[in-house]
Amino acid sequence: MNLKEKIRDIPDFPEKGIIFRDITTLLKDPLAYKYVIDQFTEYYQNKKIEVVVAVEARGYIFGAPLAYNLGACFVPVRKQGKLPHHTYALEYELEYGNNVIEIHRDAIREGQRVLIVDDLIATGGSSCAAAQLVEKLGGKIVGLAFMIELTFLKGRENLNGHEIFTLIQY
């Protein structure tokens, strides 16, 4: 399946000069959405994933069904102030600003095998921050999965040699 045909490009969003890769067009195609989840599931099914961590908000779209398919628990990483219990927080840079994400302090046990999932990797800021939070909790990162990779922003370089799996590259 050609997933790029399912992605809509929105020029100058959220700022002038940025091309936003809109996944809502893929999500409204049930066969394409199923294909993405199936591809992730097939790739990770034998890697003994115990925890799927997904970054708010679009990471949840792929992370939750993947966790279900893998028989793993699901842990949300959220924007600052959205999680109700004790958290660890980390600030990171976006390609067009800064943000802070948090994870519950009791979300991951020492040594658990963790997969981090998001819809897209650009500069790698949010994924790197999520990885640092997972490692702070003692999780062992098995890999990071993204539907889309913007290769020209070199986000892989910020992920400290972790295994990365992507379905589409721009």
How would you briefly describe this protein structure?
This protein is an alpha/beta fold and 170 residues long. 26% of the residues lie in helices and 36% in strands. The model has no long low-confidence stretch (mean pLDDT 96).
Describe the structure.
There is one protein chain. The chain has one domain: Rossmann fold (3-Layer(aba) Sandwich), CATH 3.40.50.2020. 26% of the residues lie in helices and 36% in strands. It has 4 helices and 9 strands, in the order ββααβαββββαββ. A hairpin with a 7-residue loop joins β1 and β2. The relative contact order is 0.17.
Spans of 5+ residues with little confidence (pLDDT < 50)?
A: none
Q: Assembly type of the shown chains?
A: single chain
* Overall tally of structural domains: 1
Q: What separation lies between the terminal Cα atoms? A: 16 Å
The major sheet is characterized as: 7 strands, mixed
Please write the CATH class name. Alpha Beta
CATH architecture designation:
3-Layer(aba) Sandwich
Helix content: 25-40%
CATH topology annotation: Rossmann fold
Percentage of residues in DSSP E strands: 35-45%
Question: Features of this protein?
Answer:
single chain, 170 residues, alpha/beta, Rossmann fold, 4 helices
Topology record:
Elements: E1 8-11, E2 19-22, H1 24-27, H2 30-44, E3 51-55, H3 58-70, E4 73-79, E5 87-94, E6 97-104, E7 113-121, H4 125-136, E8 140-149, E9 164-169
Parallel strand pairs: 3-4, 3-7, 7-8, 8-9
Antiparallel strand pairs: 1-2, 4-6, 5-6
Helix pairs in contact: 2-3
